[in-house]
Amino acid sequence: MKRCRNRLYTFGGDHMSEKSKVYFADFRCFPMRENLPQRLARLIMTAGFGSIDMDNKYVAIKMHFGEPGNQAYLRPNWARVVADLVKNQGGKPFLTDCNTLYVGGRKNALDHIESAYQNGFNPYNTGCHILIADGLKGSDDVEVPVSGGEYVKTAKIGRAVMDADVFVSLTHFKGHEQAGMGGTLKNIGMGCGSRAGKMEMHSSGKPVVKREKCVGCRACAIICAHGAPQFDEEGKADIDINQCAGCGRCLTICPKDAIAARNDAAPAILNKKMAEYSKAVVNGRPCFHISLVIDVSPHCDCHSENDVPLVPNVGMFASFDPVALDQACADAVVAQPALPGSMLFDEACACNKGDHFKRSHPNSDWNVCLEHAEKLGLGRRAYKLVRI
Question: Is the pTM of this model over 0.90?
């Protein structure tokens, strides 16, 4: 149990003998001492960022630029901190992400960059440029072998990510409707997959329509980028699985819960595939990981809206170990009280105590991703929290 000034935290590692270090700083700031960007920089450097050789090397900073309309994504100010630290060490930083499968502002590189600019991610704010890793149409990828992969033998990763000499993840830690939570491994694994890679990860999640619940509102057709929802004479929907990419957006958009995963194991398989894609990205080169537990929205920043955060803001975390980092962040969130007014207090949820992620997304278990990642040798779930 750790006492953090006026707030009590009970997060900690599990029972493995070896523990990875995860560094933590809360969001408290006092006049005339340091501001939040300075605090983040101090956290990163204390965690060992300065030990990475970046001199004259290309450094990919992987983050999510936010879907237009969403207000929960990380501000560009945070990215500026990381980019400046990279440049201080002689590196050449760039912000990066890959294109999406679904309708929205980030399906191709031109729209993706335009969306990033709208959300403030321009070189004047961030101190570096943006490269969309899988190119104009999401087809510029590299097939990377996954040693020990159970579901993925070669991952399809955006080329610019794999061309980088050093990889840094900057993650907005939050909930996720299919993975349970959106942490570092989600940011790396799903985020660095090209459009073909994302389709491979989602392929087990192709949905089915519960005909008796469908009201023919066509919300699923509006959100689908692939024309998979089809409608009969009565206006009832069906999903053409040959057209479906398995992205799951129709499941979350349906107002009547008429759409469900065809495969009950789909969330677990998705989580394991994300871990395997993460291994493809980080294996064999210097990596560092930063996660901000702030505005912990129940859904991904890929949504064009964001709901009330599930819990209060917690703080900043950094580590060389992405598995330990996700575990520490998850423990921190679960230890928090649920925020009144959030979906955790909805009548349908009736679940403002316990594991906030499992309560808000009962069909997904975020532990599966971490267990599989540890099995793959990506890191350890056991950690030692070091407060700065």
Answer: no
